[in-house]
């Protein structure tokens, strides 16, 4: 997309956005009507509209009888309902999740498949293609797809690091540079523009657009899963940070003298609040659970040992969230991942420590919620990323705009993705 | 400014920005030239240009001989060099600082005056008016002033909190709601639009535009002064947070069992890293210094006790910065305030702990710098806030744009504001 970054391309894209936004808000309009509303010259407008018709984003409607003036038929323009599909793909550690929306932002379909850890990128991309092919009863055509937003595990946007030493070792993450390679491979496989980001950050974006934090423009999201990660939505947009390493809440130190972390650090939040760390702590205290679902079930059934573990973890989580809240001042804090299935047994202690350590002036403004989108968060976030980047689908507001009107959101279509009990561990981040 | 927030006003402002930006980049242009470059219709363009000429932002130049075509003189349009002044005012605890730039973003002048703590707002605003009157040798006219950006101590943007209880007690800060009242009073006193924000956050913005972090779009700023505060610049814009409480790095807990803080919390960074806390620690260890300047001078002269205090403080500061860096991923971290005058005696230990606790992948990307703008940071940040908000002065880039070109910055004119030794304590935040 780099060739689209120049000032003239931006100006043209601004004009396209203007036209598409008017058609979305007002419904069908004539070229003259578009001219009046946009202030664009006749030449510019015909050029822009011509491009949009060629791209399939806009269709010309047959002239209506009432629109004829002086006997000359006047063509109206409207959004092409068949155009503007956006696809989200989440490449989690051991599963691929896909979802798609149409130009009206209705979810056309979603699909998921588990796979063994360490599957090659060739096979993961082939799996994604196959899953996308199953959407909408197999009737999904790729040629009107506006873009794909893909979520990956690990850092995205980080420059490839050369040389020896710890900085060159990506540890448990995908190697730096993977994101760019995957983006290029996807673009080749699907033949459409592809945007990539970290899948936990995408889940944060999805929660802010369609999930627990709908309508809030400043959201802090924490995911407590096999790994611990997070994401920040700032002013309605996903915050990537200068080097693609934002949202790494799992690697904030909670105990400088604590145990080693997979990241190469010591005493990180992930060493005490990941699914593995929680199960270890539970078993060390005499508890018995085959997996995290068993653990949260035991906690909900009144197991005091499990509740004690959740209290200790919740306090550590609350301390980290308080530090970040003081720095960033989010409107809503969302906690997701398998551990959040424990509900208030976890969120109660989180809220208590968060409230105690956040700036007293901010206490009454705290808004802590459980994530709402479950395992499709990453894929839906990929769609949101496409909506941000594409004027063809960008109902998602530009910065100075107020939030989208509730009736424009596909919330009702997303109820299928509410969290539910699972027997299989979730795969990301 | 609320009446300027509608979609049509935004569209018009977008057109104005387009025209002004072209005149800034290309120099004088004819209306025909502007039409070609902007794609705006003749009607829209004449309307926009007419408004800009009436507002005094654009002037018509006499037709040049070479510009005549078919004997008809063609008027050219250019930016009015006399227009577009922006004024920054920092209302610190015991001083008022003012600065002004013209439409070319040259600093026209700056002035400062100390005053007793607790001076009434009437007198502080009168002092600000008098100081502004001294700028540019007293020749500054207020009628071309585009806007004023003012910095205040304490939260800005926080809804007024009612009811009893700790949340209603603003502690050492100005009461919630003060910012709005001061903004209205300033608008009345100066007769121009006024933008307000927290003065430490404004200093963060100024460092990102003209100071230590020039050119970076993601900046974390920490100020170690009589209070400890901070600010975040995200994607080139000042981050306010959902409730105006972002950047409160001084109230991140460093020791849950620590001493009480003025904010009502316990063990906050401010309880160990403020000027007062550092002097207390130094004196408790047997050191003797009349004030913070004496302390930093002693440290630089090889006083081992002072260096030990700075090491301990630096480690706590580094830990807090690491947590925020992991969450936010800034490109540059800037440390300012009187304690930063100790230079590497403080920044060395800060860097050491920051590097140890930041995500290992991010270590090689760390960029820690000492603040460059000194006591005028808040006032210059106020100017940057006006530049952001006003199309008349907005060379400061909109989000998708690259940073301003170095030669467009008034950096050379700001050298007077580099940090220098002071015998008087600084007044903010």
TrEMBL record, chains A, B:
InterPro entries per UniProt: ATPase_NBD, ROK, ROK_cs, WH-like_DNA-bd_sf, WH_DNA-bd_sf
PROSITE patterns in alphabetical order: ROK
Region (Disordered) residue spans: 396-429
Pfam families the record matches: ROK
PANTHER family from the UniProt entry: BIFUNCTIONAL UDP-N-ACETYLGLUCOSAMINE 2-EPIMERASE_N-ACETYLMANNOSAMINE KINASE, ROK (REPRESSOR, ORF, KINASE) FAMILY
Similarity annotation: Belongs to the ROK (NagC/XylR) family.
Protein name: Transcriptional regulator
Organismal lineage: Bacteria, Bacillati, Actinomycetota, Actinomycetes, Kitasatosporales
């Amino acid at each position: 997309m780099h060739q689209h970054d120049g000032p003239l391309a931006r100006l043209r894209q601004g004009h396209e956005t203007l036209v598409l936004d008017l058609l979305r808000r007002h419904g069908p309009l004539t070229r003259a009507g578009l001219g009046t509303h946009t202030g664009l010259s006749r030449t510019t407008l015909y050029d822009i509209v011509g491009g949009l018709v060629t791209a399939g984003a806009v269709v010309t409607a047959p002239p209506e009888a009432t629109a004829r003036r002086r006997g000359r038929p006047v063509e109206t323009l409207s959004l092409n309902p068949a155009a503007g599909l956006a696809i989200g793909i989440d490449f989690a550690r051991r599963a691929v999740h896909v979802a798609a929306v149409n130009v009206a932002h209705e979810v056309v379909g979603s699909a998921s498949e588990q796979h063994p850890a360490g599957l090659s990128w060739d096979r993961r991309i082939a799996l994604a293609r196959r899953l996308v092919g199953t959407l909408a009863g197999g009737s999904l055509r790729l040629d009107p797809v506006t873009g794909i937003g893909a979520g990956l595990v690990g850092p995205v946007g980080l420059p490839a690091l050369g040389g020896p030493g710890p900085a060159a070792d990506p540890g448990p993450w995908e190697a730096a540079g993977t994101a760019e390679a995957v983006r290029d491979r996807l673009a080749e496989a699907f033949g459409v523009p592809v945007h990539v980001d970290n899948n936990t950050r995408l889940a944060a974006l999805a929660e802010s657009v369609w999930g627990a934090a709908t309508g809030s423009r400043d959201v802090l999201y924490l995911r407590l899963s096999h790994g611990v990660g997070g994401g920040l939505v700032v002013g309605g947009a996903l915050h990537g940070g200068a080097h693609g390493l934002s949202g790494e809440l799992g690697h904030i130190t909670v105990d400088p003298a604590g145990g080693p972390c997979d990241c190469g650090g010591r005493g990180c939040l992930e060493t005490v609040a990941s699914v593995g760390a929680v199960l270890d702590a539970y078993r060390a205290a005499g508890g018995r659970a085959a997996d995290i679902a068993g653990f949260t079930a035991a906690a909900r059934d009144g197991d005091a040992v499990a509740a004690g573990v959740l209290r200790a973890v919740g306090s550590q989580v609350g301390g980290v969230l308080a530090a970040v809240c003081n720095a960033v001042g989010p409107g809503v804090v969302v906690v997701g991942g398998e551990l959040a299935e424990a509900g208030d047994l976890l969120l109660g202690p989180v809220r208590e420590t968060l409230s105690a350590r956040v700036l007293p002036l901010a206490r009454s403004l705290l808004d802590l919620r459980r994530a709402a989108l479950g395992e499709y968060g990453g894929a839906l976030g990929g769609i949101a990323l496409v909506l941000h980047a594409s004027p063809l689908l960008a109902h998602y507001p530009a910065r100075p705009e107020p939030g989208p009107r509730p009736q424009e959101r596909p919330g009702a279509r997303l109820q299928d993705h509410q969290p539910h009990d699972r027997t299989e561990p979730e795969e990301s981040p």
